[in-house]
Amino acid sequence: MAHDELLARHRAVLPDWMALYYDHPIEITRGSGRHVTDGEGRTYLDFFAGILTNGVGYDIAEISDAIRSQIDTGVLHSSTLYLIRSQVELAERIAGLSGIPDAKVFFTNSGTEANETALMLACGHRRSDQVLALRNSYHGRGFAATGVTGLRAWSPTALSPLKVAWVHGGYRYRSPFRDLSDADYVAACVADLRDVLNTATSGDVACMIVEPIQGVGGFTLPPDGLFAAFKEVLDEHGILLISDEVQTGWGRTGEHFWGIGAHGVTPDAMTFAKGLGNGLAIGGVVARGDVVDGLTANSISTFGGNPVSTAGALATLDYLLDHDLQSNAAKLGARLISGLRDVAADHPLLGDVRGKGLMVGLELVGEDRAPDPAAAVAVLEATRERGLLVGKGGLHGNVIRLAPPLSVTADEVEEALVALRDAVAEVSAR
Ligand code: PMP
């Protein structure tokens, strides 16, 4: 089928609100390492890793073999009512890696479902439907997950099963506190948290949900320690802290295995998805055992923790730990950020270059930091023309997001920097 026909059929039968990247949207038909090929035979260096789903890379033999051996048993899935060896092993591994004492794990099929579950567990545990969330957050497409999403463009309904109150902190570049020192910024956000608790809630709040680095919100980066300072306040009230690690988990941020690690605090629960399956659908919650066990009725996910996804996830986890991809993320992420700061020095269009590890955001601005979403669209197209796939996001749609597979090489980072420098120069000269 020709590309144009595929596009027309897509548009006819899939929702208008499912955005497609590019004037000429592409179909990815093959992948290898950090490269993908489209249906028209063009190969790209993928610096968005399929929105961070291909966290390790494409066509990794160890991972494909593990999935294939499970398929060869003839059992793609039967039921979570029976024992599943790889599910138990994966849960043990994640519980151990979480640092949460007496942790238990529940597997889902997506990040949304993971957050829905974590919020349900926290609200059930605390017998409260009040939740704190960060402005500029994204937590998924479910009813509760949309309710705690603090981005108008991604929160299509005002209806929510939760009573949500919003706190400053995640998005420093456009925060009223942005010009303060790190310590004063944290103090101002903590004061805001106390104020929100006292004015917009009845006090008996169930939980606070945070992304350590906001993903859809534009790879925004609060100062290290912010969430530890928040947790001190939360602990005064028994409010649980949920860290949404859907984008920041598995070593992506370089310095730490979980994004929240940068804050020196252990949350009560973490949610995960995307990179764990290296492309397979898997997500889940890891949380304090007493919180997980607090449900007062049966509950299952039919496919969550199925043997194919958990076998693939175990192999992914082995691969990223055996190859120390977290260190690779730290080293090459630092190079990516320093290379991009050099580009920013020549091009004021790059108002902010920020990130940690292989999660790097470029905020495109005009005079007085005015958001420039048209420039972001132009950079997206200009990088694609140069054989590089990147992402877009942010409250104003003016942030370019870079998140290559964690196995990216030094040469590939240099190649991406050249493409980005040229693309930014071209768009700046418009
Ligand atoms: N949380 C975060 C931080 C995310 O970035 C996303 C997906 N972009 C989700 C939750 C939802 O995950 P999914 O699309 O798998 O439901």
Describe the fold and architecture.
This protein is an alpha/beta fold and 430 residues long. The protein folds into 3 domains: 1-45, no CATH class; 62-321, Aspartate Aminotransferase, domain 2; 325-399 and 422-427, Alpha-Beta Complex (Aspartate Aminotransferase, domain 1), CATH 3.90.1150. Helices cover 39% and strands 16% of the residues. It has 13 helices and 15 strands. The chain has helices at residues 3-13, 49-52, 61-72, 85-98, 111-126, 143-147, 182-200, 226-237, 289-292, 307-322, 325-346, 373-385, 410-428; strands spanning 28-32, 35-38, 43-46, 103-108, 130-134, 163-167, 207-210, 240-244, 269-272, 283-288, 350-356, 359-364, 388-389, 391-393, 399-402. The strands form 3 sheets. It has a 7-stranded mixed beta sheet, sandwiched between helices. Strand 5 (130-134), helix 6 and strand 6 form a beta-alpha-beta unit. The longest helix has 22 residues, at 325-346. The model has no long low-confidence stretch (mean pLDDT 97). Bound molecules: 4'-deoxy-4'-aminopyridoxal-5'-phosphate (PMP).
List keywords for this structure.
430 residues; alpha/beta; Aspartate Aminotransferase, domain 2; Aspartate Aminotransferase, domain 1; 7-stranded mixed sheet; 4-stranded mixed sheet; 13 helices; binds 4'-deoxy-4'-aminopyridoxal-5'-phosphate; pyridoxal phosphate; alanine-glyoxylate transaminase activity; alanine--glyoxylate transaminase; aminotransferase
